[in-house]
Amino acid sequence: FDAVQLIAAKRDGGALTTPQIRWLVDAYTRGYVADSQMSALAMAILLNGMSREEIRDLTVAMVDSGERLDFSGLGKPTADKHSTGGVGDKITLPLMPLVACFDVAVPQLSGRGLGHTGGTLDKLESIPGWGASLSNEEIFAQLSGPVGGVICAAGAGLAPADKKLYALRDTTGTVEAIPLIASSIMSKKIAEGTGALVLDVKFGSGAFMRDYDRARELAQTMVALGTDAGVACSALLTDMNVPLGRTIGNANEVRESLEVLAGGGPADVVELTIALAREMLALAGKPDVDVEGALVDGRAMDRWRAFVSAQGGDPDAALPLPHETHTVVAPASGVLLSQDALAFGIAAWRLGAGRARQEDPVVHAAGIELHAKPGDEVTAGQPLFTLAADDAARFDRALEALEGAWAVGEASAFTPRGPLVAE
Ligand code: URA
């Protein structure tokens, strides 16, 4: 094949065949197709789309560019969850140990945050000693042992074609194409070897896919890809217009996750954790177990502690605290009308909780604590939220991001949100 001909075919609205797509992905991974050519192809795909067969072929080719883990020897089912990313989304932390309580192994291979959305590994790395790097043998051993779950970094061997292509899309304005997003996410999850997968596809201001219908299309595309690859797959469409829970950051999100594991925690975090756990367990063949019971009676907390210890962390160590805080109070009495997820995500990022480039460090103690949620009654002078950073000079730019992002007003002006799990 000739890369220029294939790019031109896609540019002119044609469809690529299975052998053409396999050749392209293989040649690109080996360096025979140049970054410039793959960028042009990605843009042609963004503009002209791909058929379901082309998306499947692209996904399979990216899976085949690297290794595929195999957990069939574990002797128990496996289930994982993937979230398309949000603000305050710490659900993986309580979810993994909760599901593992029911003898379903959870191979949760996760990433780091970029931009305004946080990353699970960044949050966990605020626990002293905890490490994200496990070899394939260590992953297998932890899944088959008493922990029954891992949360760790995806190794370089999984879907290397996607790693190359995603970095290219990031710098060429071609991230937003549904065929490319769906194949990128699903190639990694299929290569990870999970038997069941629940997708938490977010919509709303803090989501990667703001528009509900586009989020739904992404969800359907990904579920079809998983199903075609033999993974039991389903998706929940969940609201990301308002941050999840009362914390945004890293160490503070671990603290909130511990509250959930102790049977408490904010209602929305608990609701989503339970909904996703039920879905994972149903797909893994355990639809009727007492999910709430494992949060209330300490089983999920015991798993969490075993998990933290197994990956080198100290479950009893103090989590880092910020050097500086700044609290914003209600200017008047009334109801908190709004709390925009994107603005709060950007503010937490500017406080140091997130990173601008993949190689930057994050400040584990930085972030935001929300003292009120939309719909709550507040009185003048009552704290609404607290910013935390290692350097007070960061507060101005964070506060700038929050201008217009929240409001206190008359109760009659409050519009209640729809359900957290929309579909
Ligand atoms: N996350 C991914 O892994 N890939 C994408 O393309 C978008 C989000």
Short description, anyone?
The chain has 423 residues and is of the alpha/beta class. 43% of the residues lie in helices and 15% in strands. The strands form four sheets. It has a four-stranded antiparallel beta sheet with strand order 6-9-11-7.
Write structural notes for this entry:
With 423 residues, the chain is α/β, with parallel strands linked by helices. It has helices spanning 3-11, 18-30, 35-48, 52-64, 92-100, 120-124, 136-144, 160-170, 178-192, 212-228, 251-261, 267-283, 291-296, 299-310, 341-353, 395-401; strands at 79-83, 106-110, 149-153, 196-203, 232-239, 247-249, 324-329, 334-339, 367-370, 377-378, 383-389, 406-409. The strands form 4 sheets. A 4-stranded antiparallel sheet has the order 6-9-11-7. The chain has a 3-stranded parallel sheet with strand order 1-4-5, with helices on both faces. The model has no long low-confidence stretch (mean pLDDT 96). The structure holds uracil. Residues 166, 175, 180-181, 184-185 line the site of uracil (URA).
